Amino acid sequence: MQCIGDIISMKPKQICPSCGSVELDTFYEIFNAPVHSVRLLESREEALNYLTGDIGLGFCNQCGFICNLNFDPGVHEYASGYESTQSYSPTFNSFAYRLAESLVREFNLYTKKVIEIGCGQGEFLELLCRLGGNEGLGFDPAYVPRKFEDVGAGKIEVIRDFYSEAYAHFKADFICCKMTLEHIDKTADFVRTVRRSIQHDDNVAVYFQVPDVLRILKDRAFWDIYYEHCSYFSPGSLSRLFRSCGFDVINLKRGYQDQYLMIEARPTDHVGQFDTALEESVPQLKHLVEDFAIGVLETQGWWRNKIKDLYSRDKKIVIWGGGSKGVAFLSTLDIENEIKFVVDINPKKKGTYMAGTGQMVVLPEYLTEYRPDVVIVMNSIYRADIEKDLNKMELNPEIMTVEHPQEKEIQ
Ligand SMILES: [Zn+2]
């Protein structure tokens, strides 16, 4: 799982899925990354032998889009044992609630029809429907049928499938797609499908939300680069994609401690206009990509040394966060024995194993027995929640966040 990032090399014949250009440079590679990071794996052996694939991030010199040039969508099964919900986190839930409230208000979503593409278990769709008395239609292959008790019978339907051209005849007043586009390799094809479904109805609005690759590049956040995410967007590359697919970008902002990009757009029959203030230029982005390619190796080296040093002094380390970030962090650094447990608040993950490196996932209460010396938090936005949990258990380990590990040095 070694990473080579210091060489910017040209890979001809690769075509940018966002703009069609062939001007792509590979700038970051990870070999043997687990192809899934949120499947529930029942044994350590299964986790250690889990299917892997290579990541080679390419940068498009035309539109600034970044994608995994080695991505093979055929390896993914989203249908079963796919556990990606974040709804056990109070911080996440309050963000989702405020977002739904603001979308309902801004787009006047009262007694309207709402589509959510990639709706998971439909939690957000349910919020949109409940807050505005709307009817909802969701699409997600990993959806497990359930009742939506808060909104009344028949108000929400979820189709257990990927959204595609086959569903473009479904009409809605609002189309929302959160944390899904980064899983899709044919980005322009997908956005055009959504655009075609709207046809000439200027009243329809769309909302998409994706991770912001600018933050990943600036923070050298290698834990945010994993196989399931084949597409990485900056404010500029996201806006350029929507404009080229027949949308006017009406709002573009960051949220969730600047981790997410949130774009609002309306259809236009022309090439979209209106640049937003947040957009960076392609040369600016290229500069960040080049800095990342060199700097990320330094960051990975720092973490390897830190973990090795703590382990050699018999310090017990746990990772807090058993999702994709935790899998990417451990598998990129190739950490198996130095860290034995990963904590997650999702009870469905209890007793499962981390893909690639095989740590067992435990619930927070296990820490009263294990008593770790160091907790590495995989997303600093949850730090306050985690500190509260640790205090309740009367535990006082050193806390490090992946984004700012050196704020407080471990002695
Ligand atoms: Zn491009």
Description:
With 411 residues, the protein is an alpha/beta fold. It is built from ten helices and 18 strands. The protein has helices at 44-48, 90-106, 123-132, 187-198, 213-218, 235-244, 282-312, 324-333, 367-370, 383-392; strands at 3-4, 9-10, 24-34, 52-60, 66-68, 113-117, 135-139, 156-159, 174-178, 205-211, 231-232, 247-255, 260-267, 317-320, 341-343, 360-362, 374-377, 398-401. The strands form three sheets. A seven-stranded mixed sheet has the order 8-7-6-9-10-13-12, sandwiched between helices. Strand 12 and strand 13 form a beta hairpin. The longest helix is centred in the C-terminal third of the chain and has 31 residues, at 282-312. The protein is globular and about 65 Å long. The two termini are 29 Å apart. Residues 1-12 have low confidence and may be disordered. The site of zinc ion has 8 residues, from loops.
